[in-house]
Amino acid sequence: MMGLGSAIGAGLFLGTGVGIAKAGPAVLVSYVIAGAIVVCVMRMLGEMGAAIPASGSFSHYARLGIGEWAGFVMGWLYWFMLIMVLGAEITGASRIVTGWIPSIPQWVVALVFVVFFAVINLAKVKNFGEFEFWFAAVKVTVIVAFLAIGVLLVFGLLPDTEPVGTVNLFGHGGFMPEGFAGVAAGLLVVAFAFGGIEIVTIAAAESEDPEHSIATAVRSVVWRISLFYIGAIAIMVLVVPWDSPALTGPEGPFVAVLDQANIPYVSGFMQLVVVVALLSAFNANIYGTSRMAFSLARRGDGPALMSKLSSSNVPINAVLLSVFFGFVSVLLNWWLPDDLLGILLNAVGAALLVIWIFIVVAHLRLRPQLEREGRLTVRMWLFPYLSYATLAMLGGFVVLMLFDGDARAQLISTTILFAIIAVLSVVNSRIRSRRAAP
């Protein structure tokens, strides 16, 4: 449920509208490509996670399979990426609530949310897990209901509605109005939408039976996420024209679809669910960033104070660091209330791509060792052929991004960030060597 809950957030509820605007109905192609990649990456991550449960997850596996520097870079790159996601989630939720109560500034709403979830994350991890379970259950239930209403809309089975057929799918400039460049641009947004599912393996170390828990989660979560995402996007592009401003409005594409159903209070209820979804994902990402910082500190790749545990075994300083950046996002909501969400959404996709590439490489390096030791309970299909095919698809993804202006800028930014963190890893390694020398 944590895997579902963390992946069903701003990327799905708000980012899909941006993806549709960039690619048109062909965003479905973007989702199918990204979905195939994510299924394979999660299978590989699940194989390593079930064999070696660790709160640092893929950062730890990169360290074991590639080298110390890779573990450092992956850990802090992922931490940085989730900090950006924190800002996107809290901004999206605050913007919707401000629409309900215009008299309250957006930054004030964001501040209230950050304080509330700081308390949740500083409590026992069991309480956090319970909270996330029920919030994820609400999101899953609502998406299933959305898919049912969407099918009725497509076939005109609701009162005062007509069958939409394929008019919106092919009638507004064709299925691929922006060409392959649009599909490439949509892929960045799509990558962000699938981000979050990897928190399953981060949480594994704190579950009662890590090997069994992560095996079950990886097998079930991946196909459910694919069904929810691709099903929801198909409904959107069938029911609402891809160039409709409502899809990229502050309320998001889900509300734009339900407005067509003419069911009293349904769109208003959906707005509430979107807020719940965004806040739940925000909460899960505070968990993810704090556990990653904790794991890095325990390995000597971060400040030692980040490894301190409270009396309830919560990494208190690591949580406080994440909460601090939650407050930074509050300041940004005050400074850039209208532009912030788009900036943050665009800043994430390329970083996630780099992390996926390193997961695949780490898996290719670790699999033979894990097999020799008899530690595999989850197995990647058609190893090593499908693993290499996934790596090739990720490489093709990078090439596509080079031909799109916005995507290329994000790729360059992520490359610079990667280089900075890599330099810091060298500095950190030398400091550790000097301390160990005596």
Query: Which runs of at least 5 residues are low in confidence (pLDDT < 50)?
Result: none
Alpha-carbon distance between the two ends:
48 Å
Number of strands: 0
Second CATH tier, the architecture of one domain:
Up-down Bundle
Structure description:
Helix 3 packs parallel to helix 16 (349-372). This protein is 75% helix and 0% strand. The model has no long low-confidence stretch (mean pLDDT 83). The chain has a domain at 2-72 and 123-261 and 341-432: Amino acid/polyamine transporter I (Up-down Bundle), CATH 1.20.1740.10. With 438 residues, the chain is an all-alpha fold. The protein has helices spanning 2-7, 10-23, 27-51, 58-65, 68-100, 106-122, 125-154, 167-170, 179-194, 199-203, 210-239, 253-258, 266-298, 316-335, 340-346, 349-372, 385-402, 405-436. It has 18 helices and no strands.
